[in-house]
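Checklist before submission:
- one chain only
- standard amino acids only
- sequence pasted in full

Submission:
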Amino acid sequence: MKTVGHVIANNFRRRHCWRLMCCVAVVVAVVVVCLLFSPHLYIGWKDNQTPSNNNVQTAQPLSSSTLHHPRHSESLSRRSRTPGMNRLQVDIRKNPTGISQVSSLKGRRCSDGLERPSANITESFEWQRVTPGQDDTFVFSAHYDRRGDRASIVITGISSNYMGSSSAYMCRVWFASSSRAEVCSADQYIHTENHARRYAAVFFTCHFEGDEDIPYAVSLVRSDKRCQSSSNVLKIPSSMHGAEAPSVNFTVCVTPLNYDFDHSNHLVEMIELNRMFGAQRFFFYNHTTGSHVTQYMRMYEEEGIVSVIPWKLPIATDDYRTKVEPQIHYFGQLAALNECLLRNRFQSHFVAFTDLDEVIVPRRHASWGEMAQELIKSRSRSGLGPVASLHFRNAFFRTDYGSDPVYENNADVVRLQLRSLLTTVREEKIYPHGWRSKHIVVPDAVQFVGIHHIERLSSDNSPGASVVDVDEGTGLLHHYRSWATEETARQSTASDRFMHRFSDKILDRVLAVHSRAAKRQARNPV
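Returned file contents:
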């Protein structure tokens, strides 16, 4: 039988337990409110708490029929970007702008504890993991950009995070005039042309507020580690800040060199054909090349014509020998092309994008410059607004259809393997714009490019600018390629000897290059 003392003690314990539970509940509620509404404590929002302007891009694979057709395995048709496609969803909400954002911490500074990057930092041209052991995002380079009154830094990277996981990233920006780093939000753009691979090209835009001077270095960090030491630091090239007018009219960005590419004759012909039509600078992204090509690349570099960017990807790429499944489309082609666009945004008036076996041929004008000028003037007279890109249709000049009888017995042409003079039988079909097309862009008017299309225009710098579909009578993409292993039936053909009118120029240019290379080799034997 309970005594009066027992009853009193039990009632006392119950009352105090109830009070303790109430206190705990209040503390938990306060912590939850702080986490949800304080950007200093928690960066990012849960899906059901995301403001309408904090959403993200959806990555789009190609349809299976496009992926496996030998002719269209590299193409992104405009039709593949229409509603109804299967999509790989990103674990952040969707936004019409195609950009993911995190809560802004603009203007915040990290304390003095962080190690400051050297003022003499140089570009490493190496892929750097954002968070070792915890992250599948790598960054390669950073470039200053200014659109209207907004200054920013654009970081080129690759990431597998678009496959499902979401990570909020921020930028840590360093200025020469300040000992502290500014931390700002990172807008993330995931390129839609990922071809259903594990990794996609991704671009982070850092909107910094510092007005001391132009930043010289930046790191991409996870939001929960924004003021901790970073495993990556990227030099922002000071020569690319756009303080002066572009010094080059036409620059050519080339798809990454791969499979130990060592056809020096094809390399020289490609460069000299483009130079004949007006190209002044070339950027090659070197995954793997052979010794013969390396010799010519070095000579062109010494002459200020070519820049070679090392392109050793940290993930599995195409390999016909091991048949390993690549983790990214064609040696990171989309990341390379857009890195080249960013690198030349303030350096060149126009940037052309082609492969080694392609050349954009002006069919009605003597040069790219004359062609572009006429197309831009014509558009202006029609009141159609500025030009963002010139889009050229593709025609396959089939190297497996035999050599032209005019030059098949010419010793120099045959020895130098000049496809532009030997290969004059093309397929009758000229592909429509959007299939196999290539382009010459106005870099200030284009934010991102695709392989065969313009991924995103820049509405800030060139409002109203658009893509011009160039008719094949004005300009045509000559694509020198063999389809012998993919096709058994001969396609309808047409004879096209347009390039023969430049035969003397082509021979003179190519012979001169090989002569210079031989003299260089004699002076500097390996």
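Reviewer check: The chain is about 25% helix and 25% strand.
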